[in-house]
Amino acid sequence: MTLGFTLPDRFGSQALGGCYAPETLVQPLLDLEAAFRSALLDPAYLAELKGELRHFVGRPTPLTPAPRLAAQLGLKALFLKREDLTHTGAHKINNALAQALLAKRMGKHEIIAETGAGQHGVATAAACARLGLSCTVYMGITDMARQAPNVARMRLFGAKVEPVEAGQGTLKEAVNEALRAWAARCDRAHYILGSALGPHPFPTLVRTFQTVIGEEARAQILEQAGALPEVVIACAGGGSNGLGLLVPFLGDPLQRIAVEAGGHGPDLGEHAARLDGGRMGVLHGCKTLLLQDDHGHTAETASISAGLDYPALGPELAALILDGKVEVRRASDEEALSGARRLCQAEGILPALESSHALALLPALAAEGAATILLGLSGRGDKDLSTYQSRSGL
Amino acid sequence: MNPLLPFLMAGDPSLEALPQLLSDAKALGLKAVELGLPHSDPIADGPVLQAAAHRAIQRGATPLRVLQSLTGITDSPDVVLFTYLNPLLQLGAAELKRLLAPTPVRALLVVDLPFGEEPAFEAELRAAGYPMVPLLAPTTTLGRARQILAERPDPGEGAPFAQRFAYVVARLGVTGTGQGLDLKPISERVADLLPLSSRPLAVGFGLSDPRSLTAIRRLGATPVIGSALVQELAEGRGLREALASRLVDDL
Ligand SMILES: Cc1ncc(COP(=O)(O)O)c(C=O)c1O
After folding, report:
1. In angstroms, rounded to a whole number, what is the distance separating the alpha carbons of residues B214 and A41?
2. Phi, psi angles (nearest 5°) of residue A158
3. What pLDDT was estimated at residue B206?
4. Among A40, A100, A175, B200, which is 20 to 30 Å from B245 by CA?
5. In this structure, which topology does domain A61-89+210-392 adopt according to CATH?
6. What is the pLDDT of residue B248?
């Protein structure tokens, strides 16, 4: 017997994902899946989403050639998919807005969200303001300090930001607290999870709403370059921008790469590289690659970027990696900072620290002989100015 | 009927104190206790049990050490191990069975394991005498409740309370001391759930004062006392003292 979900809830040959949720949340998750399925078949919902993505978010986002950086690195061509140019400054708005519309359709006017870098929190707060929904965002206190501009933004949009003091005060603890809050208010609130993780149907929901990135990018590069690139690359926290960009290229003969946070060292607790350091486990409702200690307790992580320090890799992305369809690499804090500096100076674009992890890989890919690369620039770096300043001695 | 199902957090106040707590519980005539395995990310727990788990982990109460500290204990009620799934998955079913064999653990309450998600693991443990306690939440429809009770079947009248009862979650949310819990919804809920099976029901989440505990008993169910008890034990109160007033009906 199964729980009664109708969409596929497991990924890949190792059946990652699933719905390891407390019983209180199982019915709300079943209801969410049903609402998601019916919304995708409802022309009115799809039209409203499309309209909002166009007129509020600013889609389609440009595909920007980066010829000076390409030349510097010895690449033939480099294209940037500009999610940094969306309203609120990161890909997170694609999912937040679509889920907020879904919540409204379900008659739920209270929204709960977690946030790490604050981009998902800001996107959710903006979507809620736009749609007239109330919004509470849970955020770890470490992240509140290092992403202070985003805390102010959320509050300006009328959201309540709840500080989470437990543990390391980062994304994992924020998700814990958001899940608890949802269990208490699931009769009236919808939880907008910000990455392709958590219990089914969240990973599928989030990925579905993010594939607009790759669908646009694929059409744009074919139009602008007349051919597919050799490499498509994105950074991976939970995996939402990575899946969003890479999934539409799964059928193509090219190299697909997800970049994890290498942090400042190779030992457990010094990075967030789940592929090398992680073992199969269950956290926040899904089975996936998880950084954990010998006792099955979630390990601490470290990364200069608040959006990449989640201890688990989203289950669908983990499955694609384990099944050989996506390659995984890692970039250290220092390499990410260098990647950001190169883009700033060559192209006049300030990337988010998360996106800088993908940028960090470019010299290595050039050295390996790649000629044309499509890179997901998941967000803008305004939120990270204080880190860039202190780490670059500006 | 079992008058009370107390919840203890393993390793808080200390693992050394556990044998005495279990012995006291037995002396009080209790048939079962829930024993929490401290976890790093207790998503179904409120602040009191989160803090207790955190203290226990700081003191070194790893799953392995908790189970080792239960080894050989017989002066104890049946123990229901209350836990999150990941630590059990990391041990694996075979090792878990080996560790549980010499302990008073008779059932597992795995908060984040709905039936059907780890069928092989669950079946292997049930066959070895460690059934999973069925959980019924306020959001669980009666249809789903029937399904849950069938998927996690009653081993029968001859089996102990620990292996037969279903756990009814009294309110939405997480564990914690619920000040002023409105007892009307849970009364109606228990009345709806009792006829679904012949197994005993335990009711928990937010119960602590003698009056609420009495009210649950009057419904024909066993009240669970968790956060309030854990808090009092952490503050140095003894188990007998903490439970004395809660075992007598407050009329
Ligand atoms: C700009 C940006 N990129 C990437 C991420 C990582 O998340 P994901 O892997 O879900 O795309 C975040 C998360 O906060 C982010 O803000």
Report:
1. 51
2. 90, 10
3. 87
4. B200
5. Rossmann fold (3.40.50)
6. 85
CA separation for the pair A373, A362 (Å, rounded): 9
Mean pLDDT of chain B: 95
Nearest to B30 by CA among B99, B78, B88: B78
Asked if the Cβ–Cβ distance from A281 to B144 is below 8 Å, we say no
Ligand 1 centroid–CA A124 distance in Å is 14
Helices and strands (DSSP H and E) totals, chain B: 12, 8
Q: pLDDT of B117-147, one tens digit each?
A: 999 999 999 999 999 999 999 999 999 999 9
Contact A279 B144 (CB under 8 A): no
**Range list of β-strands (E), chain B:** 5-9, 32-36, 78-83, 105-110, 135-136, 166-169, 201-204, 222-225
Cβ of A26 within 8 Å of Cβ of B114? The answer is: yes
Q: Does A285 touch chain B (CB under 8 A)?
A: yes
Same fold? A20-53+91-207, A61-89+210-392: yes
* pLDDT the model gives residue A6: 86
d(CA A388, CA A250): 34
Written as one letter, the residue type at A73 is: L
Per the CB < 8 A criterion, the answer to whether B5 and B202 are in contact is yes
The fold of the A20-53+91-207 domain, in CATH, is Rossmann fold (3.40.50)
CB B200 within 8 A of CB B162: no
pTM beyond 0.80, yes or no: yes
Q: Which of A354, A355, A380 to mutate to test the pocket of ligand 1 (most atoms within 8 A of CB)?
A: A354
Task: Indicate the Cα dihedral angle A385, A94, A240, A311, nearest 10°.
Answer: 60
Is any ligand 1 atom within 6 A of the Cβ of residue A352?
Answer: yes
State the residue for tokens 């199964």: A2
Return d(Cα A194, Cα B178) in angstroms, integer: 30
pLDDT at B176: 87
Q: What is the DSSP letter of B118?
A: S
Q: Is B161 helix (H, G, I), strand (E, B) or coil?
A: helix
| CATH number (domain holding residue B122) | 3.20.20.70
Q: Which two tokens stand for residue B48?
A: 């009191």
State if residue A174 touches ligand 1 by the CB under 6 angstroms criterion. Answer: no
Number of domains in chain B: 1
Q: Are A204 and A243 in contact (CB under 8 A)?
A: no
B66: nearest CA in chain A?
Answer: A295
Compute the distance between CA of residue A234 and CA of residue A203 in angstroms, rounded to an integer: 17
Nearest-CA residue for atom 15 of ligand 1: A307
Interface test with B, best of A180, A190, A290, A291 (most B CBs within 10 A): A180
Reference B166, options B139, B196, B125, B143; nearest CA is: B196
The parent domain of residue B221 ranges over 5-247
- Collect the ranges in chain A with pLDDT lower than 70: 1-2, 393-394
For chain A, positions 178-207, list CB contacts with chain B under 8 A.
179-180, 183-187
Residue B59 touches partner A, C-beta closer than 8 Å:
no
CB pairs under 8 A between A and B: 119
Sheet of A10-11, strand order: A10-11, A16-17, A286-290, A279-283
Provide the residue ranges of all domains of chain A, joining segments of one domain with +: 20-53+91-207, 61-89+210-392
Say yes or no for a CB contact (<8 Å) between B86 and A281: yes
CA dist A233 and A80 (Å) reads: 10
